[in-house]
Amino acid sequence: RMIQDTKQVPHTHEREINVMLYNKYFHQVLTICSESIIRVWELETGLQVYQILEPHGFNTEVTSAAVDESGFLFATGAYNGTVRIWDFGSGQEMKVLPEGKDWKEDEHCLRRLIFLKAQEKHQHLVLALECNGTVKMIQGKEDDVYLMVIWELPDVVPFLQDGKHAVHLRMSTRDRNMAIPFPDVELIVERNFSQPTDNPAMDLLRVNCIDLLQVEGYNLIAAGTLNGVIILWNFVTSTVKKVYRPEDCFTVNPDLHPKHFKINDILFLFRTPECARRSSQDSICSSSQCESSKGPQSSKGSKQSIHDSEVKGEQTDVTVGQQQPMDKKHPGIANLPEAQPPILVTAHEDGHLRLWTLEGRLLKDMLPFTKHSAISLTSLYTDSCTRILLAGNVEGHVILCNISSFLDPPHDEKKFKQLLSWRAHSLEIIQVIYVEEKQVVLTASIDGSVRLWYALNGHYCGYFGQRRLFELSQTSDFILPCDVTEYPVEIKEESKFTEKQKYEYPLIFDREKFEDILWKVS
């Protein structure tokens, strides 16, 4: 049966959510609203652990945050460009990047923060993206309470116009007293190059989203811009190149919305050799896990069946893909699988999900199915072994895709499968997160709520801030929040995307049904 949750609209904060993070070591969720209140919650119960009021000072909005790799620290970035590092367990402030004396209002507003792996002990490094498109590195030392900006990427977008595909980098020889993840770089450009200043489309050249990949053999930063250009900084080959540029993105077209090409999120998809070695039973969920964690059955039928069937098929694919040739020198020992090159996925303003090679070849262009027309995508997330891909959009939908087999060469687009779509909020989703150990999805929205969903079927668990405790052991009832009325939609075959829509009540005259009436009239 389907029942509705309390008539009270879910509210985690009184204002819209700006940031949501998950700390997998503490099993806690951190949320920040536009009123600049930080709250930390227990995932399993939904209980609030602590909160921090006005963390960056009175009336200063916090716009970004990140958790470090160990889980012991988190950083916050604000509207005025200030950055603070906190102890996650206690909520105590540790370090601060103060506001510059010559900074203008919102000039250095921070859009994204990413903790970097420190090369030395007792140092903290944070990569920051400002709303103006500037990417910089912030450093904190153990014996200093103040943070400082030590590195900044040069603006390369204007140099990648007029058909220019790549720009070489000169690694700076400037001495540093400590190692950092990225070297100091300078662009190698022609001396007579002049940046155009009279083109209105230049305002759309700003970087809007970034992601990084630092593993053996790769040291990359990918960036997506407001006009749809994808840029890849490669610090191994000392180049920065244009992976993709839409046609006419540098010209103003009155027939198109100025942000038609906008990239809202970008993500590296990379499977480590450790993940490639894992057995097929370690897929999205094994058959035994699926049986032990079956979700509620709604009046629309089982939402578990799609995952059972997909996982079984996926396990077959993975098993075949992981049959390794035997080592001739050491019979009986399988060769270690080689890591495949990373793939880029981008979420676009036009509602499309696109996947690319690092060379710029389009592998998949998909318009997710959500019962509605194209809806702008806002957020992307993948699990630790890149088996699933989550996306959220501006109308509150969550899209769940299976990408496990797709990542294996030759990247057959038919193996990229959308599994589920469900309405999680009535307003825009700003972040989606998949919690692997609990197989649940977290969604944060501008409606002020952070909600919890079963990943296997899109069924509702509750919201952070509710009075009753979470019950992650699934029940037999299918529950919906009071502001959502749509059932989750399971996608069984990709061909249904392209089939003509079949209406439930077609306007066709049924002669057999009214045969008796017609006979009497005649």
Describe the structure.
WD repeats lie at residues 55-96, 422-453. It holds the Pfam family WD40. Residues 285-328 are annotated as: Disordered. This is WDR64 isoform 6. The radius of gyration is 25 Å and the shape is globular. The chain starts with a strand and ends with a helix. A hairpin with a 5-residue loop joins strand 4 (37-42) and strand 5. The strands form 8 sheets. A 6-stranded antiparallel beta sheet has the order 15-14-19-18-17-16, with no helix packed on it. A 5-stranded antiparallel beta sheet has the order 24-25-26-27-33, with helices on one face. Strands 2-3-4-5 form a 4-stranded antiparallel beta sheet, with no helix packed on it. The protein is 7% helix and 36% strand. With 522 residues, the chain is mainly beta. Among the domains are: 1-11 and 273-317 and 368-522, no CATH class; 154-195 and 203-268, no CATH class. The model is unreliable at 283-333 and 495-504 (pLDDT under 50). The chain has helices at 273-277, 287-292, 305-321, 495-498, 515-521, and strands at 2-4, 17-23, 28-33, 37-42, 48-53, 62-67, 73-78, 83-87, 93-97, 110-116, 123-130, 135-141, 148-152, 166-171, 185-188, 207-215, 218-225, 230-234, 239-244, 263-269, 343-348, 353-357, 362-366, 377-382, 388-393, 397-402, 417-423, 429-435, 440-445, 450-454, 460-463, 478-480, 489-490.
